[in-house]
Write a structure and sequence with these properties.
Structural class: alpha/beta
Oligomer: single chain
Strand order of the largest sheet: 5-4-3-6-7-8-9
Shape: globular
Bound molecules: S-adenosyl-L-homocysteine
Number of strands: 9
Radius of gyration: 17 Å
Distance between the termini: 41 Å
Largest sheet: 7 strands, mixed
Helix content: 25-40%
Mean pLDDT: 93
Length: about 230
């Protein structure tokens, strides 16, 4: 039947994407310091169905190594960037992770495959609602999505083993640095809006101070000041 041919095409497009992600990892070693991503991260990239999260009616498009529109002027990140940011956090299956910028929920799903619990904050209420429903429908019961302002973090659930930020502020938001455990890692694009940003690794030291390390130049949507209500809307 047509259906199985479609499934086969989709599986081939997905397999090609995984090869491209590993090729990108090799090409960007100079910036990132790693030339391959862990087996756990690549298994997550293989498992999570990206076509479930994009707007396009053409499912194969979801497996092109590109950012894509998700509505509300926002985008789902490029798969290679999702893999890189997840990998750089060195996550364990017991880790508690905070994500800022849920968007469509794709990155949250990838995190949920390699970590223990994911708490994700989205400033656009409709995106938060849609992502929550999507992730629930796909069976993810270790992800909580809240509509709120990521600059405040999620104090009730802090501290976190790791924090992943998918919108770009001009500096590390102090509340996020506070909510990271000593020894914890945060990956965050830092720079001026609509200009070039640097994907920055922030490591919290045992004395509570942070050390930052520049990795790759990237382009993310700006992190906007939300209303700061920090509460789920439904
Ligand atoms: N991780 C997402 C990428 C979404 S793009 C994915 O996989 O699809 C970045 C997201 O950050 C957008 O949805 C945007 O609305 C959100 N955002 C911007 N500023 C924010 C803030 N202050 N708090 C929470 N989310 C924010």
């Amino acid at each position: 039947m047509n259906r199985s041919i479609d499934d086969e095409k989709l599986a081939r497009a997905h397999a090609r994407l995984l090869d491209e992600i590993q090729a990108d990892a090799r090409e960007t070693e100079f910036w990132t310091g790693r030339n391959k991503f862990s087996a756990a991260v690549m298994a997550a990239m293989k498992k999570v169905p990206r076509h479930e999260f994009v707007l396009s009616g053409d499912k194969e498009v979801a497996y092109i190594n590109r950012p894509l529109p998700i509505g509300h002027g926002q985008t789902i990140s490029q798969p290679y960037i999702v893999a890189l940011m997840t990998d750089i956090l060195n996550l364990k299956k017991t880790d508690k992770v905070l994500e800022i910028g849920t968007g469509c929920g794709y990155q949250s799903a990838v995190l949920a495959e390699v970590a223990g619990q994911v708490f994700s904050i989205e400033v656009v209420p409709d995106l938060a609602t849609a992502a929550r429903q999507k992730l629930k429908g796909l069976g993810y019961d270790n992800i909580e999505v809240r509509h709120g302002d990521g600059f405040q973090g999620w104090p009730e659930e802090a501290p976190f083993d790791a924090i992943l930020v998918t919108a770009a502020p001009e500096g590390v938001p102090p509340a996020l640095a506070d909510q990271l455990k000593p020894g914890g890692r945060m990956i965050i694009p830092i720079g001026t809006p609509y200009s070039s940003q640097i994907l920055t690794l922030v490591i919290k030291q045992v004395d509570g101070t942070v050390k930052t390390f520049n990795t790759l130049p990237v382009a993310f949507v700006p992190m906007v000041q939300g209303r700061g209500e920090g509460r789920q809307t439904n």
